[in-house]
Amino acid sequence: MTTVLSLGVLMSLASSVLAYTPLTDQRYTYPNLPYKVDTDPTGRGPQFGYNICNSTTQNQDSDCQTALLNSIDDWCTFGPATPSSSIQDVEAATVAWCTKPGRGTRVIPEGAITGVQVLKAPSYILFTANIRQELINIQTNDDGGELDPHGDDQRGNPLGGLVYSNAFPSNKGNNNTFQQVIEWHNFLGSDVICFKICDPSVSPSSQPYCNNLFDRTGCNFVAPAAYQDGVFEVCESENQDPVGVYTGADGKTSTYSQPPEPTVITSLPSVKTPSSSKCTPYNSASLYAAAASVTPTFSVTQDTISISGGTSTTSSATSTTSSGVTTKASSTTGGGSGSSTHSTSSTSTTSKSGAGPSFSAVPVAPIIAIAASVLATFGVVIVGL
Q: Are 38 and 253 in contact (CB under 8 A)?
């Protein structure tokens, strides 16, 4: 027998089917973390990796999804688990890549990082890096995209990914105590990384600096900074304008409105780079010396990539770095949404004014689709869709 339900009844059932807690509402004291934050098998679940990361998970195949950002020599980014990946294709399953051993994660190989700037602002800390992205498994020509603790289903990208830091002023210099970062965004692609962590002690006032509504723009737009090759420094900084806010040629402040896909973004308004001061320079060789001893566990040949027993064929050329890491220059360009980590040319595009949008909206389409799929197995047909 076939049962017919109205859309209203479906929504009620969907709410009970997907009654998981949003990632930003979950709190864990480091290092007392669950093995996996997200174990729900529905929708995009369950979580790809794990959150308890230690010496037993410390290797170049680690699927740790807990990132720590503490200082210029001790920080992480999320990135793909397998070589030559497009960020858009693997965002839910990205894993932590860190600058030094000891975090239970993969270590960013020697020679990958070519410039770093850390900006300490009143409401956030911004880590930026120029990087040879193929050395952390990102497709050579991939424009990348955004990772954040939200997503359409509020489960985060990566799914279940956690972020901690001991660098905020509210931590009072205690390097052995790590605070959970609730609001953050991590853009990567086009050989650039930016990872902004908003101080949980000043949230929600810092939320406009870490919002996740401009995933198709890039680092230069959401996290304006120097992005210089060969420069490694830590600076004090003023707060940037809230993400998406810019000043037009007429001197008026507006908020950029990102067009929906598949509309191509051909230009972006110019945003102000916040002023910085009291910069301390560092030598890259001493900063990331520990990475020299790390050897990736994947190998690349002319036509084949071998990863933990799995094999896939490519048409990429290969090269070898000074650390013995074999890499490839893929002929495949980044696809998907076209999220670029570098912003495009400036315009004076005018959009709605005011503060950055909030995070409160949760799209119902994914919930309806999942619930409909589950109910269909019981012969339930939905009307009104």
A: no
Q: The tokens of 46 are what? A: 């369950």
DSSP code, position 266: -
The DSSP symbol for 140 reads T
Is residue 249 within 8 A of residue 274, CB to CB? The reply is no
In angstroms, the CA 141 to CA 212 distance is 23
Phi, psi torsion values for 330, nearest 5 degrees: -70, 145
Closest CA to 191 of 216, 162, 160, 220: 220
Nearest to 160 by CA among 147, 173, 171, 172: 147
Cite the DSSP H helix spans in 76-136. Answer: 87-90
Averages of pLDDT over runs of 10 residues in the chain (385 residues) are: 48 47 95 97 96 97 98 98 96 98 96 97 96 97 92 94 95 84 95 96 77 77 93 97 79 74 74 92 91 59 33 36 35 36 36 30 44 48 46
